[in-house]
Amino acid sequence: MSDLRRAVGVARKDLLIERRSKAAFNAMAFFAALVLFIFSFALGPEAPGLSPAGQTLLQYLWPGLLWVAIFFTGILALGRSFQLEMDSGGLQALRLYPGDLKAIYLGKLAANLVVLLAMELLLIPLSAVLYNVDLWTKLPGLLGVTVLGSIGFVAVGTFYAALTANLRAREVMLPLLLFPTQVPIVVGAVRATALIVHGDPMGELNVWLQMLALVDVVLLTVCTLTFEFAIEE
Amino acid sequence: MTNGGYIVAAYGLTAIVLVGYLLSLWRRLTQARADLEAPDAE
Amino acid sequence: MQQVGSLLVWIVLAFLVATWIALFARRLSPQKAGTLWGIVALPVLAFGLYLGLLWAPPDVLMGEVYRIMYVHFPSWIGTGAGYLTAFVCSLLYIRSRDLRFDSWASAGAEIGLVFNATGLITGSIWGRPTWGVWWTWDPRLTWTAIMAVTFAGYLVLRALMEDPEARARASSLVAIIGFATLPIVYFSVRWWRTLHQPQSSPETVDPQMVVALRTMMLAFLLIFGYLLTRRFALAQLRAEAELAALEPDELEMEAAGD
């Protein structure tokens, strides 16, 4: 069996478990909705925003708020992905299979990415409705930014989820280790989202998308090369 | 604050951090040596 | 004084290189080298403080406040040396599985964080009279703050894990990933700020200032070397204690197994 098929197998197994129980997804969707409400309470639903006149603060800040919500919610999905294996000793079994351990990483990564993207498909329209952001014409570009940002987040996130799965304080350690590495993703994704939603007079969007793609490649490479050490016994 | 005040604050805080770390390192070293020499004392 | 200062800088630099060569030739133990560095650091530091605080002229634009530079920039030398040690020794640990490399890596991270703290403190104090605020989201300042968070996470992770091998493996990976992402974090933070204001660089090329700064940098590097070897010694003592604490348990388990 080739490594690619092994990776697909791992991803399908995780997604099947998730589809049957929906434990992670329900918690994430609920949490994401709560975060959106908290932002509204904290910033005021009708507080005026900056530049284009008539905009509310929530509309102005929407790109940043969206990515904060995605990151906080995404942590929930990542924490679960290896917990699943720890409880039933599944990781030992996975480790015993022949072939490259990178396949486990790529499989887990793919499963996490699918769950995160599904959550974003819910979160983006919901936040747009709640904050009155007009984005229906801008969905294709937004989809590209979302996918690129999510890949970078999940690449390091899956790695650190595996590394911290054994720890008592994993709920604290995962964000503590993960967030400092996510600075380039936050910067790039929020800026690109803002350019799409608020307009792009200088034509900068492509540069930011290229930067996001480059960061994704770097993070994926580093994490793929070192993953086999992260799940050693 | 005057210019001199900022300089004193910067040099003073740097000294406090470095000397404080040095003292804590020495204390931890003597402690570790003592623990290693008399492990059965407990 | 100018000549004396430059000469001293070269002598200390030659001394550092010589001790490094002796270390790698195994003519000198790390502990002895550390003691030597510590002894030499004191006069160099005293001379550097004299040069920086009294001898060097005030800056044309910033006046006297710029003298914070003589502890601010050397702090980054210590930070960089510490994190680089952590990164290189983590790679060496993953390759060799020799726990001594893990001790060096943890020593480097901890001392890098100490110098990172002094760098951030002095930067913040310097920022107040020059920019009017204690903290500005200047790319370099922001970047060093992210560095501090990265390696603080490394140390927190180590504090949480008890098994020496698992701790060494996990924390090595954190140091490697954290250090490897620092360059892209730097460029992203710079890009993030480009739309606002370019950073004015206070590179005043007064030869007196250069000599004072180099002396202080060498002093901090020597202090770093001393602290690093002592922190390594502490890590080794703790490793021995962990081993000693482990052995009775294993003996009991074996006895129970019989």
How would you characterize the overall build of this protein?
- The complex is a heterotrimer of chains A (233), B (42) and C (258).
- By secondary structure, chain A is an all-alpha fold.
- Chain A has one domain (3-230).
- Helix content of chain A is 81%, strand content 0%.
- Chain A is built from nine helices and no strands.
- In chain A, helix 3 (57-88) runs parallel beside helix 6 (139-164).
- The longest helix of chain A has 32 residues, at 57-88.
- The mean pLDDT of chain A is 85.
- Chain B has 42 residues and is mainly alpha-helical.
- Chain B has one domain.
- Chain B has one helix and no strands.
- The longest helix of chain B has 35 residues, at 3-37.
- Chain B is rod-shaped and about 55 Å long.
- Chain C has helices spanning 2-24, 30-55, 69-96, 99-131, 139-160, 164-194, 207-257.
- Mean pLDDT of chain C is 86; it is low at 195-200.
- Chains in contact: A-C, B-C.
- Chains A and C meet through helix 6, helix 7, helix 8 and helix 9 of A and helix 5 and helix 6 of C.
